[in-house]
């Protein structure tokens, strides 16, 4: 695709939307390869090399004619006259030779110009195997006719259509899943075996051919209130859209491709696919995600209840030391509750740590210093962190900020700063460096006193975060604590 983009950007004199049209073509031409049972190659003229292959697609309904990919290579001398003629004439050209490209290959080669607003933008060559001596089946003949109709629309700028769905939802129908061909009135002219099977799973037991697809789907739908508003336009083949129908617990994805000539619509293709299992799994994931969010919400509520009980108990304590111990426990529980509150608000099991720490950082400093003025500064970006990192890291930061205020500043005004730095370590893994600094009294005699809070910090850093921690004096006074950890989930 890099070659594709570079060639179009550097060598083409395109109008508005032309490059996007070719990108849309390559994004959807697997459909043509499967219908034509042929390899497709997209050619574009190079000012010095002649025609260069921009893209190559192989059929999933047949074997490939080329086992090596020649994207970026110049065109073979035997094929160039055919492609050049198609470029100039803006008509589909067919080779009279079946041995083109190799004497031991019997293939039919056609060159189809992709024309938009009167200008040839590229040429598609189709390479179909003719070595089989058997007569083609009705399915093959119908598929090849559908491929020809779509390629003919390409020479008129009518396909691909910008109105076609480009969403990434799983379950988009493919040729092998089932094909229906409709006439201009929406009557089924041909239904592939897989297409018939898909509608039988919905509950239709009659032959599809000769019947109106709109009437068939109407009879199958039990709850008309749940009908997608796009359904009538899809099952009649009037618009190039996608929709789904559901009946008897079976979900069927439908995609319509109107067939047109220069003046009018003359029919349509409808691709269908049974997506019941995909939708069932998606529903299970939605239910699972909702359950996980509810668990986090309830854990958060329970932890907040525990914090409230600790607060009530601390107010009844006569011992100042006991009261401080309960207040510290309350802060730790509240920090864990904050992480669960964040997890309960999203689907992913990761946390936007910057949003979480923005609240907690200021709160930790304020709670630890109700009688003194402490400023907070924050730099850098933590980014998204796995939930198994978020909880211990939030606790560590809470303890270190509390320690910096209570012991580093010691009832005096000052500033506590928090800095985060994401980087790649020597092993190539994502890593995080965190620094907490204060401009207080500094380390006593160069050593740090090991209280319960710092014991908790060391345990969390080494066992839960798998990182390292280091205390150093700060230039100009104060203390700097550096944390370093690789962001590799351990759960």
From TrEMBL:
Q: What is this protein called?
A: histidine kinase
- The enzyme's main class, written as a single word, is transferase
The record, for SUPFAM superfamilies, names: ATPase domain of HSP90 chaperone/DNA topoisomerase II/histidine kinase, PYP-like sensor domain (PAS domain)
Q: Does the keyword Ribosomal protein apply?
A: no
What are the residue boundaries of the Histidine kinase domain, all occurrences included? Answer: 294-489
Alphabetically list the UniProt keywords.
ATP-binding, Kinase, Nucleotide-binding, Phosphoprotein, Transferase
Q: InterPro entries, from UniProt?
A: H_kinase_PdtaS_GAF_sf, HATPase_C_sf, HATPase_dom, His_kinase_dom, PAS-like_dom_sf, PAS_4, PdtaS_GAF, Sig_transdc_His_kin_sub2_dim/P
List the EC numbers from the record: 2.7.13.3
Q: Which GO terms describe its molecular function?
A: ATP binding; protein histidine kinase activity
Q: Which reaction does it catalyse?
A: ATP + protein L-histidine = ADP + protein N-phospho-L-histidine
What Pfam families does this protein map onto? Answer: GAF_PdtaS (PF12282), HATPase_c (PF02518), HisKA_2 (PF07568), PAS_4 (PF08448)
């Amino acid at each position: 695709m890099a070659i594709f983009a570079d060639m179009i950007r550097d060598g083409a004199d395109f109008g508005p939307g032309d490059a996007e049209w070719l990108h849309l073509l390559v994004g959807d031409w697997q459909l043509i390869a499967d219908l034509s049972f042929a390899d497709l190659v997209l050619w574009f003229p190079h000012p010095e090399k002649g025609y260069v292959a921009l893209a190559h697609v192989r059929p999933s309904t047949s074997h490939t004619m080329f086992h090596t990919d020649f994207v970026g290579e110049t065109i073979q001398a035997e094929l160039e006259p055919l492609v050049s003629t198609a470029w100039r004439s803006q008509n589909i050209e067919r080779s009279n030779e079946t041995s083109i490209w190799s004497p031991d290959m019997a293939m039919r080669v056609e060159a189809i110009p992709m024309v938009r607003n009167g200008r040839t933008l590229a040429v598609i060559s189709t390479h179909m195997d003719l070595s089989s001596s058997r007569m083609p089946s009705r399915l093959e003949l119908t598929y090849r006719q559908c491929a020809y109709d779509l390629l003919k629309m390409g020479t008129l700028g009518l396909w691909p259509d910008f109105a076609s769905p480009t969403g990434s939802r799983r379950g988009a129908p493919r040729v092998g899943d089932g094909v229906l061909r409709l006439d201009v009135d929406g009557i089924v002219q041909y239904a592939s075996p897989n297409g018939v099977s898909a509608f039988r799973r919905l509950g239709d037991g009659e032959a599809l051919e000769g019947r109106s697809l709109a009437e068939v789907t109407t009879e199958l739908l039990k709850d008309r209130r749940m009908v997608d508003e796009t359904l009538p336009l899809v099952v009649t083949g009037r618009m190039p859209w996608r929709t789904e129908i559901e009946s008897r617990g079976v979900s069927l994805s439908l995609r319509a491709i109107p067939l047109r000539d220069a003046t009018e619509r003359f029919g349509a293709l409808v691709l269908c696919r049974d997506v019941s299992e995909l939708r069932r799994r998606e529903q299970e994931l939605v239910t699972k995600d909702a359950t996980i969010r509810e668990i986090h919400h309830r854990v958060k509520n329970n932890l907040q209840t525990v914090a409230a009980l600790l607060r009530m108990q601390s107010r009844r304590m006569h011992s100042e030391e006991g009261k401080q111990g309960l207040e510290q426990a309350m802060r730790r529980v509240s920090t864990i509750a904050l992480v669960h509150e964040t997890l309960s608000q999203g689907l992913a099991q990761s946390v936007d740590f910057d949003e979480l720490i923005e609240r907690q950082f200021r709160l930790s400093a304020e709670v630890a210093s109700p009688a003194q003025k402490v400023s907070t500064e924050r730099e850098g970006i933590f980014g998204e962190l796995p939930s198994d990192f978020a909880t211990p890291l939030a606790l560590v930061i809470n303890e270190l900020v509390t320690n910096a205020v209570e012991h580093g500043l010691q009832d005096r005004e000052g500033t506590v700063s928090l800095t985060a730095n994401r980087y790649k370590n020597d092993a190539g893994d994502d890593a995080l460096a965190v620094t907490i600094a204060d401009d207080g009294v500094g380390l006593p005699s160069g050593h740090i006193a090991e209280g319960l809070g710092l014991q908790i910090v060391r345990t969390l850093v080494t066992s839960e975060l798998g990182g390292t921690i280091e205390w150093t004096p700060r230039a100009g006074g104060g203390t700097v604590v550096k944390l370093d950890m690789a962001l590799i989930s351990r759960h």
